[in-house]
Each structure stands twice: as C-alpha cells, then as structure tokens.
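Worked example 4.2. Below are the chains of a multi-component assembly; read each line carefully before continuing.
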Amino acid sequence: MTERKEFRDLAEPEAAREAIASLDLSPEPESVPLTDARGRVLAERVDAGIDVPGFDRASMDGYAVRARDTFGADEADPVELELAGAVHAGEAPEVTVDPGTCAEVSTGAVMPDGADAVVMVERTDERPAEGSEPGGNAGGDGTGDRPDRIAFRTSVAPGDHVMAAGADIAAGARALGPGTRLTPREIGLLSALGVEEVPVRGRPTVGIVSTGDELVRPGDDLDPSRGEIYDVNSTTIAAGVTEAGGEPVLYPHAGDDYAEMERLLREAADECDLVLSSGSTSASAVDVIYRVIEERGDLLLHGVAVKPGKPMLIGRLDRADGGESAYVGLPGYPVSALTIFRTFVAPAIREAAGLPEPRTATVEGRMAVRERYAEGRLRLMPVGLLDLGDGGAADGRNADEAAADGPAADGPADDPDRPLVYPVDKGSGATTSLVEADGVVAVDPDTEYLEAGEPVTVRLFSPDVRPPTLLGVGEDDPAVNRLLDRLANPRYLPVGSREGYRRLRDGVPDVAVVAGPTDRDVDDAVLGEWDREWGLVVPAGNPEGVEGLADLVDRDLRFVNRPTGTGLRRSLDDAVADLADERSAARADLIERIDGYGLTLRAFESPVRRVLAGDADAGVGLRETAERLGCAFVPLGDQRVAVRAAADRVDREAVASLAAELDDGIADLVRGLAGYSA
Amino acid sequence: MTERKEFRDLAEPEAAREAIASLDLSPEPESVPLTDARGRVLAERVDAGIDVPGFDRASMDGYAVRARDTFGADEADPVELELAGAVHAGEAPEVTVDPGTCAEVSTGAVMPDGADAVVMVERTDERPAEGSEPGGNAGGDGTGDRPDRIAFRTSVAPGDHVMAAGADIAAGARALGPGTRLTPREIGLLSALGVEEVPVRGRPTVGIVSTGDELVRPGDDLDPSRGEIYDVNSTTIAAGVTEAGGEPVLYPHAGDDYAEMERLLREAADECDLVLSSGSTSASAVDVIYRVIEERGDLLLHGVAVKPGKPMLIGRLDRADGGESAYVGLPGYPVSALTIFRTFVAPAIREAAGLPEPRTATVEGRMAVRERYAEGRLRLMPVGLLDLGDGGAADGRNADEAAADGPAADGPADDPDRPLVYPVDKGSGATTSLVEADGVVAVDPDTEYLEAGEPVTVRLFSPDVRPPTLLGVGEDDPAVNRLLDRLANPRYLPVGSREGYRRLRDGVPDVAVVAGPTDRDVDDAVLGEWDREWGLVVPAGNPEGVEGLADLVDRDLRFVNRPTGTGLRRSLDDAVADLADERSAARADLIERIDGYGLTLRAFESPVRRVLAGDADAGVGLRETAERLGCAFVPLGDQRVAVRAAADRVDREAVASLAAELDDGIADLVRGLAGYSA
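Applying the procedure described above to all two chains together yields the following structure tokens:
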C-alpha cells in the first residue's frame, strides 16, 4: 500500500515546511468597513484622496490679508486695510479679501478667498468706525461695533500663519503601504482621509474535518459507555486558525462513513483555501483521505521525521471549479495536533494572511533538568515554563526589559532571568498536557541530551500564553484549589504528596503541598498548614454498615483507592499497618484481602464518585468530599496538609504572595470545608 | 470658573492614574459559547464536570480479565480462561467478564463489566474451539472462528493496561483557574470537558462621544469650504478600546448643540461602563461636560501636569438607574488623544477586562539624537523607531532573541541592537504624526535633556506596532512610492531633498532620496538613480499660452510653488537665476515679480491640483503628474533623483534589499512614468 511505502521513507521536517510553503493558501483581497479593519493587513497602497486639512486654515486668531498689502508695514509706519468681514471656525467664508482689505479670522477658520496670510491680532490695532470712540486694539471679540479699518504693525509673507490645504497630508501623497498592519493609529489616518472601505488581504478560509465515530461536539450528549469522547482537536485547531489570522470552518463529523467523509473532504476543498483533518486513529480513515487525494489531487508528502507528527500528510485537493485547495493531515492526539499545527501550519496561514510571526510566540528559557534524548528524528518536546524573574512577562514587564536586566547572552546557562523549562511527559494522549505544557522545544535528531541550565527556545502554543509565575505540585486538596484561585497565574500539578516532595527536592517547583507524614528531608520552609479529616466514603445511609478498615478486610466489599504517593493513600497504608499489628498479621495479607486496594483513581473526588455511581462499596476520601457529594463517611483520622516552599524560592514575589495569603487567612481558606481545621 | 481654578493646580500624573484606578469599569461576568471564547478571560474557576476519559479504557490490544484470575500465571504454567466475547473501540460492551472468563479488547475499547486489567495479546495463546485445528497464538483478528479459551502466560495486577476513567482529568478536579486567558489550548481542555458555555469576564463597554460641528464621520461627505474635517479620534480610540479588551460604542456627533451633548453624555453614562469624550477645542463644550458632571456626578480631577494632555478630565457620571459610569475627557489632537488614552485609559480597560499588559507594548530603545527638554512637567514625547538589528522583530525574530544577541544591559548606551529612537515633532495637530511616530517616551519633569545613545523605554501606540526596518527621507517622487511598495515595512518621510540630506548626515535615516543638485558632502553611497522631467504645469490646453519661466515674471499669472528644500524648488531657483543672468537682472527682483513664488505646497502633486482646481495658472511640477492628472506641461529640464544610503548602513539587510530592488529594476520602476528615464 502507498502509505506503507512512503512511511519507510520519512521526509525531513524542512521538506514538510517547503511542501506547505508550496501550497497556495492566499485568498483574494477584500474590502472591509473602516470600523472592522483593525488587525487586518492592507492589500494595496493607500494614497490620500483628499487634502488634510481640506482647506487653507488660519492657524492664529487675527486678520486674513493679501500679504503684499502689508509689505513695508512696521511699528513706526503701519499699513491700514479696510475690514471687509469675519470668518469663524466651522463657517463658510462669506467675505472675499480684495486688495486693500482684510477679514477677521479665528484659529481653524477657512481662509477667505483672496487672502494668503494671517497677521496675528497682537500686531494690529483697530481703527474705529467713523463717529465711534477711538479704540485700543486687539481682542476683536466681535461683540462691539465692527471697526472700519485695521492697522497692521508688521508685514507678513504669503503663507504666514496659514496651514495650507494638504499641509498635514496632501491629496496624491502615499499614506500607507501595502502589507501595513492596521492598528488604531492607521485607523486614525484612514479616518482623516475619509476612507470608509479599506482594501485588505483576505483571511484564508480553513476547513476542519474530523473523523471518528467516537467523537462528540462539546455541548452534545456524551455516552461514555459507548466509548464516546468529546472532540478536542476541532475546537483547538479552529481557535489556532483564528489566532493565526484565518477563518475556521468546522465541518460536521464524518464519523466512519467513508462515502460521507469523502463528500465532506470534497465540499471542504471547494469552499476553503486549506483543509485540515485531525487524524482518525483508524487506518481506514487515512485510506479514504488517500483515495480522495489520489483521485482528485496531489499527494506531496506523507510521513515526516518528527516526533510527534510522523504520519503528517501534505497535499492538494482539486476543486469542482478547477482550482485547488491545500490539505494537511494532523495527528490525532491533541498535543501532537496542536504542536504540528503551530510548527508547520500556523506560519503558512499567517503568511497567507500577510501577518508576521508574533513577537511573543517564542521564549528563551533554560532547561531546569537534564533531559536525555536519542531518537534519531526531530523531537518537538512539550515543555512547561516557570518564570523565576519576578515581575517578568506575567506582570506586565515586557520581554525586552526582562532580557535587558539579565547578563549577556554568552553566559545564558546560568542566566537567572531566563524562565525554567521542564519536559511535560504525560503522554500526548492526555488533554491536560495542553495546559500543563506551554509550548515545545525542538530537539535536533543528533542531540543526545539537553543539560540542566542549557538555553533553549520554546515555541509557545499561542503568543498569548504567559508562563506561570508560580509552580506548585503535590496533593490534590480542595483548600489548595481555593488558595490557587487567589493567586495570579499559578500552575499546580496534582501529582500526589510523595512525587510533589520529590520534585521540590529536585529543584523545579516553587512549592509542594504535602499531606500526611513525610520521610524526605528537603531544604524547605512551611508556609502554612491545616488538618483534614479522612476516612472511608460509603453510599448515603451506609447501607453495608461499614464501621472501619476491618470491614474491608473481613467482608466482601468492593473498595476503590488512591494511588501510592498520595497523602490519603499513605495514611491509609499506615492504618492498614496498624491493623496488621493489632492482629499480629502480615500487612500484605490484609491488603490482599481488600478487593480493589490496588485499584487507584487519580483525583481526590474520584473514589467518592465511584461509590456514588454504585461501582464501589467504599472508597478512601475526605469528609469534605463525602458531605459535599452526599455520601456517608466513616472517619479514620486527621491528616496534616503543609504548603512547603523550596528554601531558595521563599523570597520570590509569587511565593511571597502565596505566603501572604496563608498568613492572612488559613481559617478563611478552610471555612465551610467539612472536616477541615486551621 | 471652576476649570480655571483647577487648571492652576495641575495634578501629578500619578494622581491621574490613581483617580482612574478608583473608577469601577468592571462589567458583570457573562457566558459565551466555547467557539467565541478565545481571547476571553475566565471569570471563575472551571472544575471538570466529567471524567476524561469517561470510561475505563483499554490501552493495549489484548484480553480484558479479572486480574485475580491471572495470579500465579507464568510461561511455565499458564492460566486458561474462557473467552466470553469481544469489545472494539467505539462500541458499548455486550459482554461481562465473570470469574474464569475474559474478553477480547482493542486499544481504546470500553472495559467490559467485571474486568479490571488487560493482558497484552503477545502474552497469550488461543486455545482452539473443540473440533478446530490447534492454533498458534495471537492476532485474535476476529475473522476466523472464535476460540473457546485463552491461555495467559503472565499475571497482571488490577489496573494494568487500563486507563481508568478520569485518569486524564477526573470529575471534580480543578481544570482552569479564574483569570485564565483562553488560548487555543484552554479551548481544547474545555472541549475535552464538554463545556459549551464558558463563564468569562465581561468586556467593559466604552462610550465615545465626540463634539464639534466641524467633525464628519469617515464615509460621509465632507465640505471643506465650511471648514469640515473628518473625525479621527472616535475611530482611533474605538480601535484602541477594542485592542484593550473593551467594547466601543460610538455615539452620534453632538455637534455644538449643548442640550444634545448633555443628552448624549447621560445616555452614554446609562449604557456604558466608561464614557470618553475627545476634546472639542471649544471651551464651551468643556463647560457642558462640567455642568453635567457637577449636576449628576463627581469631578475627580481636572488638569494634569503632562504634555500633551494637560486639560484631561476625570470623573464619574450618575446613571438613571442609580449606578454610575466612569468618565475621562481626552485631548482633541489625535496624537495627544491616543497618547493619553494609551497611557492612562487603556491600562484601566485592560484591568477591568482581566487582561494583562501585552508583552509587546513597550520597546527598549536608545536615543538617536540629543533632545533638550526643560518644561517642568511630564512630557509624553512622540517618537519614531528604527530597528537597526537586522532580523529584529519585524522579520519574525522575537524581542527575546534580539535582546539575547546583544550585550548586557549595563552598557546599553551603545547597544547596537536597541532600536534608534527619534522625536517626531510635527505638532500634535498633524494626523500624519500618528503613523510617523510609533509610540511615546515619558520624559520626567526634571530631565534637562536626553543624550544621544541614552536608553529609553518606548510605549508603543499599539502592541501590534512594529518598528520599521528601513527609514528613508527626502524628495517626494512617484518612483520612490513604487519602490517603497516593494519593501517590507519601510517608513519614508517626504521632507524634501535638502532636509533629507541633512538628516542623512546627522545619522538617523538609512537612506535619503535627493533630487536635483546637492551641495552637501555626506559619507554615502548612491544605490540607484534616475532622471525626471520637471517644469511648469498649466491647465489642459495651456489657455494662457505659457511658454516658460519668463511668462511668470512678465505676466500677471498666479503661480504655486514647492517649498525651498525640495529638489523641484532647487531646480526652479536655479532656472530663475539663469534667467536673471540672461537679463542681467537681480534674482530677487524676478522672484518678486512672480505672484505666488513664495506660496509653497507640501506634496509634489499639490501645485498640480491647485492648477486643476483653477486656483492657480501655473505650478511647478513633474511631467508625470501633469500627464496623469490631465494638465498641460511646459518642460524646464531634467533632474537626477538619487537614492543615497548612509555609508554605515549599506550592509544592513533592509538597505541591501532596497539596493537589490534598484539593481534589478530601475527601468521597471520608472516604466510608464511620463518623463522618467532610468
């Protein structure tokens, strides 16, 4: 089969870039109203169609004159001119300045015909009308009788104190060049020119086709018993298309009906500049795409030497009208799909839209840990970031400033202002990796390892991604969730107490939340602690009459546990050990007799939800969760939860904010949480 | 009057910031469909409402078993279980795994009831149904007869090769915190959770009221003879509001009808979180705003010690419903209005919208020239930028990289990678300053001067502003306009040949376009040159029968000129000198006899347009312009136009691109331009 042959011969990533660059995604230019033009890109040069200002404009209060009439005038020998009338700002002049005459003007007034200069009022005197009192000068407030004649104590040259029509910008002058991104100031200039419709580059239309019977659109009902999952890629990629300056079009799910999938692909090709499909894992869906491209299109490339994204497909689809649409097939796992989209496809969409790569799309970081690598192909490694430079990007200081504060680039390995970069290796199938990783680091095929401290460039998943200011790890706990809500831009990985404490020791996170006893000895500081009541969660009314741990051992009850490494499990293990001591039995034997002791669930609520669903008779959990979700609770003890900060991070601004929250209000933090005490 | 009193006592800029911070612009949170949520900010924490995956999922191809049934199995002593059925991905299981049985599963399949682990197919053997051939193992392709029994050559623990429901994210777990900006990846996670409506921070509604009879909305007809101009501020500020995360509402022009203005202000206050008015220059408009605020509102501050923006007003407007709206009065000149908006108002809108200051909103630069300053109040100086670091922000390299390449921050005065910063001092009334300046530098009241090379922070007018890669200055010329269209992100200031050459000598621009003879001696390189025919432009058919310069001197013709310093004027001056020599007359006497010799217009087309409009009998101009606009032309000569680059900029990428354009095609550049020759 075609794909097998081509798969053996993986293309280099550069070839994939070139293949995509060879596709024409550029739509026709279009015209948009000025009010919708912000963020768009000019398709062609805009020349001024009118003069700004559109009239010769007096730029002082005074008198409009023919300059020649003032020649020779000075303080000793003023020239007198007849006052023919007045023009104020916003009026059409009703007066003409003939030789020997002048007209009163205010700033902003249209210069009357005949006049070519303005004499400022301070250099003039009114000569009273016949029969009036002889007057002082100036003011010319227009409220009194108008004088007949004005005396000028200075001469002016043509153009003096006149802003000529077009002096700001003249009709015919080049105003804005093609390719200009329209920000508020360009909108302002176009307004001044009276432009109502703006010729802009079109936004490439990007069709998104997703395949797979198991996919359900968010908002629709999900039937997990049939193995259904929500469609993540369509909405993620659609948001990425918009961000890159394209217009996404979501096509309905093709399911696994191949005729329908073929029809949708052809429809999308007819309607869009680019068609993306996010890979069905089923080989047969790939076959359909192949068939469509081979029958009516061109396959440019299949299979790229990159991890993830090896099965990337690049080609062209013929349109019914004789044109063609570009096609790229993305991997199926969400992080892989977004990575390949961001690396290969988004730049092509931006290029077609005329938009530059955003300056914030990459961040220079340094590896927090050593990372081995030897896969022989380009690896786009998902990574998380932690910005240790307090006041870094996340609180408004820009990247330039952050960089400017740091040492020079030739000693970046220990540059403390570069954010820490750590691999996120949850497996690309996990959607939570989407938010636990901030971007990807491209690791060359011939790189064996990245050293801790080594400078790396992180391509962020979005130019709007901001590295978190605080990284916490450890126990899953409802009070911790509340605490996080009070902080600006934290990240918390609920990896359990043991793993959290290990990571704190290894130096990446700022804080670890540790529940229950700890053995390790880490150089840390306890920022705050509280107690929580734990035990067995059983169905409402405790129908099996569970009274304690012994019931799990002695009776045929289905139990559900938390993973080793969580504080809850640690305390439960200790309680089992105590029971074993009491009975002089082996701990392992007791455990062996508990059905489901090894069946562990990831989040602290999960065992409770199993019990609620009737799939377990008892689960380990918190009184808080049991009461909140309406279960009964058999208490086994209290356990201490401590927020521990790495000693060398205590002075960080974000850690200090966390400490301040804890100083101020652990009582407030645990208020209303059943079984919690400060 | 109130304003006079308060004006004497100008507030410090910090007090203005505090006054604006004291206003409550925050709208209520709202709910938006997931597909519209990109770029918005979560109003509250989102916990997972469902488990992801929503079912226990086989993560290998193999057999679902009760783990206990496999205990003790190994290669030497396999365990046999009865095959009860099969489950494939995307199906609801129709089989239950009772003790002693197993079910075939494929990756992604829902685990059947009873089973708690998967044994991978490679560690199993099929036992043929009674009467069948004894079979090999594996495959389990389901196409042949189904075997009766499966032999397991390994034991598994509960949970092995099963991704438990919620293992990616569990129901009840904290998914995203309040204040999270929704980028594609967060959209992805929300999709996985099936979230259809997202609780987000509201966008502050910002009403924009503009005053002044002379203002006309872009697209409407303009009557310059009445002194009308297009309204620049409303559209500029509206675009700025959108950019800052607000929703602008444009109110119709209030004109100078004060009752109407009052009605509009109250309507805007009722409907908006913030009302902005961009200052009418008329003192009486300010009076109306005062009266409205004093009658129904609070005036917090009037007059700030900042240039521009001194007359800024900050207050509150009562609403009919008992609430209140914030009010800020902006200056009237476009650059001043945008500067005050960007410095004081946009941060408040972003804060209310929950958005951080964009990282690209400021740039660290260095002064290109010495700038004196001693005004005693904060100056927000409009500046242009020139990014000399080739490959800087403008071609995709981000600010971090640019900064990382440069030397350390403690030697920034001569840091060649900081963009050059030069003041733009066209007067804040000029709308072209909007696009000739990129942002503002805040200069402290006690700063006497900024040295050339001094590091400064430039607040860009928009985070999307990109400093130009090339700065050109000099003569206005249609071939230059064509040339500029072929370059990426250039800036060209048509200041005339003389001023352009002066600036080239002073070291700010990269290139100067010089037409006609030059006296100066600058260290430069000519990148390309062409000739253009210049002369007198007269009405079509040359009704006055103008034959040359002598007609202007000897007859009563209205002439219109270009400014001294332009190449056209320089050549005209030389021609007048030649005529004076011929006649043995004084040059000044001849000039004196030309009506309008001193009346100069800014753009090269402007004299021609004056002639076209019937306001002049002749103007200096190019054959190109005369022919294009349908005038007759009286040739006076050819003049050389040279594109000259500063010697120390010749190697810059942007200058090299320009040189390449000229090398390739001056003939192409001037093709079709009447009177031009390469």
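Take a moment to check your reading of the output against the notes. The radius of gyration of chain B is 37 Å. The first helix of chain B runs from residue 2 to 8.
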